[in-house]
Amino acid sequence: MKRKLVLEDGTVFIGEALGSEREISGEVVFNTSMTGYQEILSDPSYCDQIITLTYPLIGNYGVNRDDFETLNPSAGGLIVRESAAHPSNFRSAQSLDQWLKDKNIPAICGIDTRMLTRLIRNQGTLNGRICHEKADEKEVLEELQAFQPSKDKVKKVSTKNAYHAPGSGRRVVLMDYGAKHGIARNLIERGCDVFVLPFNATADDIRAFNPDGIMLSNGPGDPSDVAQASETIKELLGEIPIFGICLGHQLLCLAAGARSSKLKFGHRGGNHPVKDVRTGRVDITSQNHGYTIDRDSLMGTDLQLTHVNVNDGTVEGVAHHHYPAFSVQYHPEASPGPNDSNDLFDDFITLMDKQKTVIS
After folding, report:
1. In angstroms, rounded to a whole number, what is the distance separating the alpha carbons of residues 357 and 27?
2. Does residue 163 share a domain with residue 123?
3. Residues 318, 179, 292, 260: what is their CA dihedral angle, to the nearest 10 degrees?
4. Mean pLDDT in the chain?
5. d(Cα 127, Cα 150) in Å, to the nearest integer?
6. d(Cα 60, Cα 89) in Å, to the nearest integer?
7. Are residues 259 and 297 in the same domain?
8. Residue 221 annotated as binding?
């Protein structure tokens, strides 16, 4: 069955139907990772977005039961050049096509993803719609021109109720703005007892758990859409050690007085080089974000620039001059991607232990 992708600039791609039959509008983005499509599709940071995977063959190792970053994916749709009809891997439980159908995620294959990626790179992120081949393009364009991405993405993907991810030792509150499973897993592996709280938990809600540290998770969308979270972080700065990742990084920066802005086409992939400006070390990192912290806005705050993106010089990490708080824009837990920066979790453990020593 034929299907088409219509972009807000009028560009139309004709391809083959994959996954769910429903139609979907959303922000069309691209990810340059060669593997890890299962983790990408189940990453809550992609909430409502239509993901273009630039690697030409997707689905060749199927979908397994272990590698999900959430059990309830919120990605809007998927675009691939070619989808493997017959996956081969000893862990495979089902094909990508069948999993997409089960999760009601529409997709399209057989289009020129290189052309689409170059279009997004040159024009910036575009809204688009995956629809049936016979859909009226004029009507679709009118819908796209009026389309506005939801400002409630974090609310959609965050847990509704606090829950316990049991470990041992240090008590860590994980603020769930769309947290990947890999974050809690890394904390538990390092001897942390993790309590996951919804995005709108208050400072008193957090204090009630008497945590040794606060982990600010990744999540979708514009950090300014969750201003309440920044205010909560601001209230806790200096009181409890904080480590932020991705959206959590941006919220920490906003709490300290910095500003954010939207990138032209975002950073999404598993091979982004990041330099630690303090040591000169360069890590290859996994990234997934469409917003960044304005570098100039760090001036006049108590934040020290610690990491920069080697490709475009954007802010990739900060540390507070006076308080036990730091954050990075990328994903040290990877999934998918390299583990170069996994030791940042160890730095968080050290920070918590140091703070306990100071208090005692």
Report:
1. 47
2. no
3. -90
4. 97
5. 12
6. 8
7. yes
8. yes
From 47, 131, 192, 246, active-site residue: 246
For helices 247-255 and 227-236, give the axis angle rounded to 10 degrees. Answer: 60
Of the pLDDT bands very low, low, confident and very high (cuts 50, 70, 90), residue 360 is low
CATH of the domain at 75: 3.50.30.20
Has 123 been labeled as part of a binding site? no
Same domain, 222 and 265: yes
Same domain? For 125 and 163 the reply is no
Q: Is 219 assigned to a binding site?
A: yes
Statement: residue 310 has pLDDT above 90: yes
Supply the pLDDT for residue 133: 94
Q: With contact defined as beta carbons under 8 Å apart, do 127 and 120 qualify? A: no
Let me know whether 129 and 175 are in one domain.
Answer: no
Task: Flag whether the pTM goes above 0.85.
Answer: yes
What sign does the CA torsion over 173, 343, 177, 241 have? positive
Question: Binding residue per annotation — 290?
Answer: yes
45: annotated binding-site residue? yes
The answer to whether residue 246 is catalytic is: yes
* 126: β partners: 28
E-strand stretches of the chain: 2-7, 12-19, 24-31, 50-53, 57-58, 77-80, 82-83, 106-109, 126-132, 163-165, 170-176, 192-198, 213-216, 242-245, 260-276, 282-293, 303-309, 315-320, 325-328
Six token digits for residue 331? 């994903």
Q: Looking at the structure, tell me whether residues 347 and 303 fall in a common domain.
A: yes
Question: CA-to-CA distance for 338 and 259, rounded, in angstroms?
Answer: 29
Residue 139 is a catalytic residue? no
> Cis link prior to 73 (omega < 30° from 0)?
no
Q: Is 333 among the catalytic positions?
A: yes
Determine the structural domain holding residue 185 and report its residue range.
Answer: 154-359
State how many domains the chain has.
2
Q: Are residues 114 and 197 in the same domain?
A: no
Of 8, 39, 316, 333, catalytic: 333
φ/ψ (deg, to 5) at 178: 135, 40
- pLDDT digits 0-9 by tens, 8-35: 999 999 999 999 999 999 999 999 999 9
